[in-house]
């Protein structure tokens, strides 16, 4: 086992030699702390700067993830001491006199609905991305009750969004130390998928992160998603389930800080609402009060932040998958078990996005429900025969429209290029669809990640297969974007294809399937429908 040491500003770390899927050598550093362990009185609090270590830190093996259910097994795993990051690099700085060209850095924020997921190689193996000359970083952040809780009492310093604060602390560590791993601190691309995309996008909406990130890649999510903002009473609800009788924030905090972590997870799992556009969820990001003792982060609607030009002006690569709605296949199956009438969507008001502010039963909510039923099902109650349109509706409602809207809004308020994509490839590596319990054709939610990261449950990639072709071309495009802000590249002296950034009234996009093609305005009819919904005026004012 060949190892290598690197001296950071906090101490020496030892990593291990690894090989990519083509047997190229790179170095892996696992579980380097970027903050103090958030234990005891630091539970629920903002992350604190890390403590330097005197002895060599062993980064040759993977560390505990942040406590959460495992995506494969559903079993609770991990712990609270989890604020660390993994680094993968082809080169390291052996001594100060050595001159090595610094490489572009990609910082990945994992998905998992803010309540699950981790940075382990069983899900996010670097074997594909490390065929390119980049530095890859994966940040572990707190999840669920530990990462997305708040209390009203501003003196307690629990404004919410601890997970976002964790990521920013990790980015600060990267800014100060990545040069020792031959990464360029002035060329950092933040990359997130789903919930990770919401976090990454929120980072870019913060002026204080200006020098931490220089480009952004977001898949299947943004801060504008209706599921990107949650309930404000999550922690109190969990405390109530665990037997806390006090309604005083200070008492609730003391009660929960003294509970074993297993009890907290139990309380988290008991506080839940269904997955519906009309319902904000427990333990998700929240809008913060500005008067907290902690520096506020999310304080207003992200649409307002973008329209007022407050977000970072950086290149963006953004898109979604063609069959995101397959993610809800399990929900459809559960509904069919309960409904003897074979109805797959009995209540269309659940599809009214809660950020619109229209109360259930209001004229506006009823009208949106009726319009949605008419648009997708010609006004009829859908049954299993309408399954395809059900998935289409959930694609548009949860992902497609808002992600296009995000790109269009940023275009109006930046002079930087924005590249849009739609991933439609359905190959042997589409593991997320299998995890989600669907055996239907199509590219489901997060299936695109399987062509950027190696997943342990996937078969080895076959040489010269269509899967390898798709993976190789995606890797090249994505890492080219990280290098220069332009994904386009030449292949055998010819340009691979011309992927144009979006223009006024032209949402150019890359369509990723067996072949890569380009087009304009994907899913336009659905976009126009939801755009009319999001811009609908209250009926009482008409």
Q: Mind describing the biggest β-sheet? A: 13 strands, mixed
CATH superfamily of the largest domain: Alpha/Beta hydrolase fold, catalytic domain
Question: What fraction, in percent, of the residue positions are helical?
Answer: 25-40%
CATH C-level category of the largest domain: Alpha Beta
Average per-residue pLDDT, rounded, comes to 92
The DSSP helix count reads 14
Work out the strand percent.
15-25%
Q: SS-based structural class?
A: alpha/beta
Q: How many domain units?
A: 2
Characterize the structure shown.
Strands 1, 2, 3, 4, 7, 8, 9, 10, 11, 12, 13, 16 and 17 form a 13-stranded mixed sheet that branches. A two-stranded antiparallel ribbon has the order 5-6. Helix 5 (234-241) packs across helix 7 (261-270) and helix 11 packs across helix 14. The chain has helices at 121-124, 144-147, 162-177, 195-204, 234-241, 249-257, 261-270, 302-307, 329-338, 363-377, 387-412, 431-435, 466-484, 524-534, and strands at 3-7, 12-19, 25-33, 57-58, 68-69, 76-77, 84-89, 103-109, 135-139, 183-193, 215-219, 316-321, 418-423, 490-491, 494-495, 508-512, 516-520. It starts with a strand and ends in an 8-residue tail after the last helix. The longest helix is centred in the C-terminal third of the chain and has 26 residues, at 387-412. It folds into two domains: 3-222, Rossmann fold (3-Layer(aba) Sandwich), CATH 3.40.50.1820; 324-334 and 387-541, no CATH class. A hairpin with a 4-residue loop joins strand 1 (3-7) and strand 2 (12-19). By secondary structure, it is an alpha/beta fold. 49% of the residues are buried. The chain contains 14 helices and 17 strands.
């Amino acid at each position: 086992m060949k190892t290598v040491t690197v001296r950071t500003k906090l101490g020496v770390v030892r990593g291990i030699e690894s090989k990519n899927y083509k047997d190229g050598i790179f170095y892996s550093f696992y579980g380097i702390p970027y903050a103090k362990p958030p234990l005891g009185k630091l539970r629920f609090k903002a992350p604190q700067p890390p403590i330097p270590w005197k002895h060599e830190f062993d980064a040759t093996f993977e560390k505990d993830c942040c406590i959460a259910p495992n995506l494969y097994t559903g079993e609770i795993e991990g712990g609270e001491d989890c604020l660390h990051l993994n680094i993968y690099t082809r080169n390291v700085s052996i001594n100060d006199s050595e001159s090595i060209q610094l490489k572009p850095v990609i910082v990945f924020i994992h998905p998992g609905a803010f309540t699950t997921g981790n940075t382990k190689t069983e899900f996010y193996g670097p074997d594909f991305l490390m065929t390119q000359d980049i530095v890859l970083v994966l940040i572990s952040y707190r999840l669920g009750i530990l990462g997305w809780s708040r209390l009203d009492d501003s003196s307690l310093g629990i404004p919410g969004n601890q997970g976002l604060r964790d990521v920013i602390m990790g980015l600060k560590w990267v800014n100060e130390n990545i040069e020792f791993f031959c990464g360029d601190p002035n060329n950092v691309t933040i990359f997130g998928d789903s919930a990770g995309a919401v976090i990454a996008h929120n980072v870019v909406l913060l002026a204080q992160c200006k020098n931490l990130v220089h480009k952004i890649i977001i898949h299947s999510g943004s801060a504008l998603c209706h599921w990107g903002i949650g309930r404000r009473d999550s922690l109190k609800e969990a405390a109530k389930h665990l037997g806390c009788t006090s309604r005083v924030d200070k008492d609730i905090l003391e009660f929960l800080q003294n509970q074993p972590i297993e009890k907290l997870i139990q309380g988290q799992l008991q506080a839940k609402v269904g997955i519906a556009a009309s319902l904000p969820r427990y333990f998700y990001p929240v809008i913060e009060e500005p008067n907290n003792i902690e520096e506020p982060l999310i304080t207003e609607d992200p649409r307002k932040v973008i329209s007022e030009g407050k977000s970072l002006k950086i290149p963006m690569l953004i898109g979604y998958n063609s069959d995101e709605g397959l993610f809800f296949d399990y929900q459809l199956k559960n509904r069919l078990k309960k409904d003897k009438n074979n109805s797959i969507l009995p209540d269309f008001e659940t599809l009214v996005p809660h950020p619109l502010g229209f109360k259930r039963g209001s004229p506006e909510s009823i009208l949106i429900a009726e319009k949605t039923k008419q648009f997708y099902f010609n006004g009829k109650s859908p049954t299993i025969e309408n399954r395809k349109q059900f998935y289409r509706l959930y694609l548009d409602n949860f992902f497609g429209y808002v992600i296009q809207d995000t790109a269009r809004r940023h275009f109006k308020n930046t002079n930087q290029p924005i590249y849009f994509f739609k991933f439609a490839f359905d190959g042997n590596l589409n593991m997320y669809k299998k995890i989600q319990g669907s055996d239907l054709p199509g590219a489901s939610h997060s299936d695109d990640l399987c062509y950027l990261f190696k997943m342990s449950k996937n078969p080895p990639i076959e040489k010269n297969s269509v899967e390898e072709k798709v993976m190789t071309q995606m890797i090249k495009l994505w890492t080219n974007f990280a290098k220069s802000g332009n994904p386009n590249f030449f292949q055998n002296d010819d340009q691979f294809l011309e992927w144009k950034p979006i223009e006024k009234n032209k949402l150019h996009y890359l369509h990723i399937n067996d072949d890569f093609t380009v087009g304009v305005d994907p899913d336009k009819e659905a976009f126009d429908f939801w755009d009319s919904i999001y811009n609908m005026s209250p009926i009482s004012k008409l």
